[in-house]
């Protein structure tokens, strides 16, 4: 016996249709009938069926019209053709129109039952494949973003929630925090994933070239424009465009962007024909756009347009519990690429990695791990395999009277170059507080007393330095 299915039975012979419907109901199927093409179209428009069984001759109407209509309205429904006038050409034509199978009258019960079983089994396989494809899409969207941090997990939830929204998304965060990866994850988890993902680094191009890059140009619009060229917005039609470093756009370019974000229409450079696109827009910046608005560097109306959904990525120093996870991932990647057997960093080196402020964020961490693997002399990586800016050791030879290169008080000049005093002191201050917290079993009152500061000051410093994550005490 076949599994129960919802079936629409279409035949202009009412008595034959009712007789077949009764037999199908005895087989536990849910059956509705229709005698004409119009009735069948109305039922298909109203609901989805697992299977549509139709004759090719429906009075004065053609059953092929129903096949095409059902395929367009309910593409997941299987269509089984039953006819008393079958030829080889008819069978080929039916399959090309979208039919799953063709049976000839008079029908044999077992033959019909087997055809229904094949159709429902094929439908189940298609459903399972679609489910697996969606699961793979979800994994592909986030598989390269590694984190156990609760702030990042909340961001993952936001990505899921807004993936199919038409509204623009603004991703903010320091350089190296993974803004491009989040943008790609939004695209991969959306219904636009089959369309293009186009990335534009707005800060890498001067204003005139950026306009041509985004909106395209016509032949003769400027010197060297020998032919028409489609812009990135047009190339991203049906997909997603990611505008990185949006804060670098000039006022003139901001006006053009405001229009395309409002109306999704634009004219190519040098052209007069208005083009329309269906493009999802994701933007990113490492600047505080609200401050840029106050300073007059960014249009207020554009700011409100792009800031519909704002995803703020935390800096790596604010989620140091992720560092061991990221280090392990980068170690595997670099070791495999270099063909080297590396077992990992020892605890002292890992403590240094977790105590550093990481101004370059995840990108800098990846570079540090790659450097350590390439220069390592042993399978176990140590503090000696880390660059001077992390360890505070001076790389140049020292003379008596200088601070020894292995002294904890030594600082590389690269650590303080171009920084304010507060910025330069941030890394050692963080390390001192972290060590004091560990020494006092993460008792904040005892830590504040040992550091000779009040608890309020300690709490503020912990928040500023990314030490307020309760999971750090288990690292």
Report on this model:
By secondary structure, the chain is an alpha/beta fold. It folds into 4 domains: 6-131, Rossmann fold (3-Layer(aba) Sandwich); 146-314, Rossmann fold; 317-386, Orthogonal Bundle (Helicase, Ruva Protein, domain 3), CATH 1.10.8; 418-475, Arc Repressor Mutant, subunit A. It is 47% helix and 13% strand. The chain is built from 20 helices and 16 strands. The strands form 5 sheets. The chain has a 5-stranded parallel β-sheet, sandwiched between helices. A 5-stranded parallel β-sheet has the order 9-10-13-8-14. The chain has a two-stranded antiparallel sheet with strand order 4-5. A hairpin with an 8-residue loop joins strand 11 (265-266) and strand 12 (275-276). It is elongated, with a radius of gyration of 32 Å. The chain starts with 5 loop residues before the first strand and ends in an 11-residue tail after the last helix. The relative contact order is 0.07. The model is unreliable at 137-141 and 394-410 (pLDDT under 50).
Describe this structure in a few short sentences.
Helices cover 47% and strands 13% of the residues. By secondary structure, the protein is an alpha/beta fold. α5 (109-142) runs antiparallel to α7, α13 (323-338) packs across α15 (361-375) and α19 (444-451) packs across α20 (455-464).
């Amino acid at each position: 016996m076949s599994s129960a299915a919802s079936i629409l039975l279409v035949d202009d012979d009412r008595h034959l249709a009712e007789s077949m419907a009764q037999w199908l109901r005895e087989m536990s199927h849910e059956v509705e009938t229709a005698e004409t093409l119009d009735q069948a179209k109305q039922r298909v428009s109203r609901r989805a069926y697992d299977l549509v069984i139709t004759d090719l001759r429906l009075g004065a109407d053609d059953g092929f019209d129903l096949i095409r209509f059902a395929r367009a309205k309910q593409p997941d429904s299987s269509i089984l053709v039953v006819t008393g006038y079958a030829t080889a050409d008819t069978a080929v034509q039916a399959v090309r129109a979208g039919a799953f199978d063709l049976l000839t009258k008079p029908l044999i019960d077992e033959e019909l039952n087997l055809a229904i079983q094949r159709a429902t089994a094929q439908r189940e396989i298609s459903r399972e494949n679609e489910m697996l494809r969606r699961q793979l899409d979800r994994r592909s969207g986030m598989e390269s973003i590694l984190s156990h941090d609760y702030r990042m997990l909340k961001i993952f939830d936001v990505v899921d929630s807004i993936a199919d929204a038409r509204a623009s998304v603004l991703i903010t965060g320091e350089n190296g925090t993974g803004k491009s990866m989040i943008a790609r994850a939004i695209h991969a988890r959306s219904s636009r994933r089959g369309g293009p993902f186009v990335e534009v680094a707005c800060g890498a191009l001067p204003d005139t070239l950026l306009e041509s890059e985004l909106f395209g140009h016509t032949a003769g619009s400027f010197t060297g424009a020998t032919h028409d060229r489609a812009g990135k917005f047009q190339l991203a039609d049906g997909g997603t465009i990611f505008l990185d470093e949006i804060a670098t756009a000039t006022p003139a370019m901001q006006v053009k962007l405001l229009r395309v974000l409002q109306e999704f229409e634009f004219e190519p450079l040098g052209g007069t024909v208005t083009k329309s696109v269906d493009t999802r827009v994701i933007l990113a910046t490492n600047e505080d756009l609200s401050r840029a608005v106050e300073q007059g560097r960014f249009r207020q109306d554009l700011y409100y347009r792009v800031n519909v959904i704002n995803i703020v990525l935390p800096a790596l120093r604010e989620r140091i519990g992720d560092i061991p996870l990221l280090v392990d991932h980068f170690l595997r990647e670099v070791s495999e690429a270099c063909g080297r057997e590396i077992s990992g960093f020892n605890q002292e080196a890992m403590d240094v990695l977790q105590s550093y402020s990481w101004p370059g964020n995840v990108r800098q961490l990846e570079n540090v791990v790659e450097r350590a693997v390439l220069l390592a002399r042993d399978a176990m990586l140590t503090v000696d395999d880390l660059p001077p800016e992390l360890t505070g050791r001076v790389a140049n030879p020292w003379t008596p009277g200088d601070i020894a290169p292995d002294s904890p008080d030594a600082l590389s000049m690269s650590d303080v170059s171009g920084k304010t005093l507060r910025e330069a002191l941030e890394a050692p201050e963080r390390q001192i507080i972290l060590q004091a917290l560990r020494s006092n079993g993460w008792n904040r009152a005892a830590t504040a007393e040992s550091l000779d500061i009040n608890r309020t000051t300690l709490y503020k410093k912990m928040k500023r330095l990314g030490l307020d994550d309760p999971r750090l005490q288990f690292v």
